[in-house]
Amino acid sequence: MPPVLSPVVSFAGPHVSSNALDQLRTALQTHLGPRRFQNWFGASSRLKLDGASLTLCVQSPYLVKWIQKQFEGELLRIAAPIVGPDVTLTYEVGADVSLTPLPEDAETSSAPQPSLSRRTVAGPAPQSVHGRSKRMYSLSEFVVGEANALAMTGVQQFITEPASVSPLYLHGGVGNGKTHLLEGLRARLRKECPQLQVLLLTAEHFCNYFTQALSARTLPSFRTKFRNVDLLLVDDVDFLDGKKGFQEEFLHTLKQFEQEGRSVAVSANRHPRLLSNTSDELVSRFLSGLVCRIESPDDAMRREIVQRRATRLKAKFSTEALDHVANRFTGNVRELEGAVNVLSTWSQMTRSRVTLQVSRKLLGRLERDCVRLIRVGDIETAVCEFFGVETESLRSSSRKQSLSQPRMLAMYLSRKLTQSAYSEIGAHFGGRNHSTVMSAERKIADQLAASQTIRIASETWTLQDLLQTLEDRIKAG
Ligand SMILES: Nc1ncnc2c1ncn2[C@@H]1O[C@H](COP(=O)(O)OP(=O)(O)OP(=O)(O)O)[C@@H](O)[C@H]1O
Predict the structure, then answer these.
(1) What residue spans carry the region label Domain IV, binds dsDNA (predicted)?
(2) CB under 6 Å to ligand 1: residues?
């Protein structure tokens, strides 16, 4: 809760004295605390007073919006006893206000940093194994298509009006751009509004800081440091799943941000409802903002990503080679980029253009070396976990719908994601024959065509979403 405002200065009457502005600044500082005051009303903006009319000069329209939301009410309340009850507030943009630039924010160590004293903190280790600084992602480099359009819109909304979508929850499979979006978001915020204190860190780092504060008995200062940031971005919040103590602390942080009108964006590898070992309270907080799913990129997006990366690496690809790479690595963007790296390195080494033939040969080797084989057992495990059923039950002869539907889905996915024959799949799921598997495959295809929905616990899923979620989890291992 913000401190209760005491009328530090008495009403100055209609003739505002020249030091009214000083009184107002002092009162603001007392109310906001020196750090926030300095940040928003120090060198970065200028207050002018003419009679009862107060003007705040700031550098960008973005800042006006932000200050209106965050401080206008407080500012007028504080100003009233000093300037008079008729006080009005207007804004001036583009005045000669000097903005104090933020220090470079990248943490230079991969180890969790015990101190949060920087204005912004990059969470995951931003160094490569070679010790060079990691490239920071930007939103302009992010290829947008149907698979991630909602997430990108959510991010843009967070930039213009964070509170309207907070907490923003981005989720999707491995390597499909969640970290890229959060880093891009931070970079854009810093550019648009350098005063904003934006903290980006992984959930794992959050836990490390918390553990350290606990053992050093510095919990109050740990919490105060979080209180000082305007926007909190947390990558990989699924890390908290099953970690009760950390969840409580994170929930406490979210609540505090909410109470103070500050905003949070997070990313995770799955939908909040699939965080099965996360408290209901935290899940419902995640659900209360904007939840956006990021899917694997479609053909056109993959092609665009390959093209851009090849250009960035100054490698020449034939059109057929570009298509070949884009069609070969469909699972996630990280793998796609890895493939382009291999071909670009070859191109530089040989000073030659990457042709279809070269691409086939090199990627054929790469795939043999790295493609993870999915087994029917992996699919079974994922389906059982998702539906909360035991393996024995799934394999049993029971025809209860609560078992037959997940069993049919597991069979359908086994056909789709493995090379196993109908008879092998049938044998795996309780010694059933091949025609049972064929019939399961047909039924699920029909249900998909009919856009059927399925109810799991209290949640209704479209079959398509459910299958995609299961696929992502299986592929992620
Ligand atoms: N739509 C996209 N456009 C351009 N590059 C992308 C896109 N999606 C992902 N990438 C790139 O793919 C790589 C992996 O992305 P990123 O690290 O953001 O994935 P992630 O979803 O956070 O994965 P993880 O779940 O493993 O943390 C990065 O190099 C990123 O720049």
Answers:
(1) 348-477
(2) 137, 141-143, 148, 174-180, 269, 305, 333-334, 337
